[in-house]
Amino acid sequence: MAYSDKVVDHYNNPRNVGSLPKEDPNVGTGLVGAPECGDVMKLQMKINPDTNVIEEAKFKTFGCGSAIASSSLATEWVKGKTVEEALSIKNTDIVRELSLPPVKIHCSVLAEDAIKAAIGDWKKKHGVEVPVAEKAAH
Amino acid sequence: MSAPSTASVKGDHFSLFGLSRKLWIEMSALEKKFLELSWKLHPDKFVNASAEEQETSLKGSSQLNDAYRVLRDPVARVEYLLEIEGMRKEGEHKQQAPPELLEEVFELNESLDELREAKASGRDLGALKSRLESEEKNFQEKLGEVDAQLQEAARQWDAAIDAKAGDSDRKAIMVRLNEMLNRRSYIRNLVTNVQKELQ
To answer: Is ipTM > 0.90 here?
Structure first.
C-alpha cells in the first residue's frame, strides 16, 4: 500500500519532533498507545495560562509512517490555537488531510486522543475541570 | 450425537472433542481423544469409500487438527472461546493499550532507538545492551503476571460454567479475559521486538 505524498512528507520531514520539560506547569503531556500495532505517541504542548493559546508543541512517536505523520500534523495544527480550538480537531480532519486509508484510521484516532490527553494533563495541573467530561455526563 | 459411519464433523472445537466450553482441559485426555478421532477420520481408511466420504474425511481431519492445535495452547484456547462466544470479532478491535504501561513502553522504545543508532554508527553497545536487557526482564515479569491473571480468570470462567451462571456474569468474565489477552499480546510483541534487536 502506498502512502500519500503528505504522509511521506511528514514522515521524511517530521515537524516539531522532540520534547518539552514535563514538570513545567504550563506543559501538558499526552501519552497514548495503540495495542493492535504497538504504537506509542507522546504529544506535549506549552500553553499560555493567560490566553489559553498553545505556544509550542512537540511530539515523539514510535510507530508506522501514518502514526508519525498524524502526530506531526497534529503538532502543526495545534500551534497558535487556543485550547478550545485544539480540542475541536477531529481525527476525521487528519484522515482527510493525509488521505489515510481505512486501515490507518486508528493512527489519526491516536493523534486526536493524544491532543486531548495533553490538554487534559495541562488542565489537571491547573486544577481546571475537564469540560469534555462534563459534557459527556449529561 | 448421531454420527453415522461417515466422518462428518460439526460444531465447535470443544464439542468436537466432546468437551463443554471450559478452559481447563486435561492434556492427556485431550491427546487420547485426538488420537482416537484421528484414527476414525483418517483419509487412509476411506480409500475405497465414495468421493463424498473421502472429502468429508479430509475436511474432518483438517478440522480436527485445527481444533487440537487451538485447544492444546492455553492462550489460543481463550482467544477461540471469546471468538465463538462472540466477544472477539475479526477486524473489530477497539482496544485500549494498558495506560499504566505506556511510560515504560515509551522508554523501552527510546532505548531501542538508541541501540539502532549506536549499531549504525558502530559505537560501543555494552551499556545500552545491559539497560535493554534489564528492561526486557521487567517486561518478561509483567508477562508472567498477566499469565497468572489470565489463569485466574480462566478458573472463574470454569466456575461460572459449573454454576450455570447467567449471561451478565459470564460476560463480565469474558471482558476480563479479553483485556488480559490484549495486554498479553501487547507485552509479548514488545518483548519480541527487544529480543530481535538484542540478537
So the answer is: no
Question: Cα dihedral sign for A79, A80, A81, A82?
Answer: positive
- Residue A107 is a catalytic residue: yes
Q: In the prediction, which pLDDT does B64 show?
A: 94
From the candidates B88, B100, B104, B106, which should be mutated to test the interface with A, based on the most A CB atoms within 10 A?
A: B106
Asked, for residue B87, whether it belongs to a domain, the answer is no
One of A69, A89, A107, A109 is an active-site residue; which one?
A107
Pairing label, strands A27-34, A54-62: unpaired
Q: A40, B105: Cβ pair inside 8 Å?
A: yes
- Cβ atoms within 10 A of the Cβ of A116, count? 18
B97 touches B109 (CB < 8 A): no
Residue-range definition of the domain harbouring residue B41: 6-72
Say if CB A71 and CB A53 are below 8 A apart.
Answer: no
Q: Is A18 on the interface with B (CB under 8 A)?
A: no
10-residue mean pLDDT series, chain A (138 residues): 85 92 95 80 96 96 92 96 96 95 91 96 81 44
Q: Do B102 and A34 touch (CB under 8 A)?
A: no
Contacts of A42 in chain B (CB under 8 A): 106
Chain A partners of B96 at a C-beta cutoff of 8 Å?
35
From the list B103, B113, B190, which residue is nearest A38 (CB)?
Answer: B190
For the whole model, what pTM was predicted? 0.70
**Is residue B103 domain-shared with residue B183, that is, in the same domain?**
yes
Q: Are residues B33 and B108 in the same domain?
A: no
Give me the architecture of the A6-124 domain, per CATH: Alpha-Beta Complex (3.90)
Query: Domain of B48: which CATH number?
Result: 1.10.287.110
CA distances from A29 to A41, A46, A47, A87, A123 (A): 10, 9, 11, 14, 11
Overall domain count for chain B:
2
CATH code: domain of residue B127: 1.10.287
Task: Decide if A31 touches B, using CB distance below 8 A.
Answer: yes
Instruction: Reply yes or no on whether A37 is catalytic.
Output: yes
Where does a domain end: B57, B72, B87?
B72
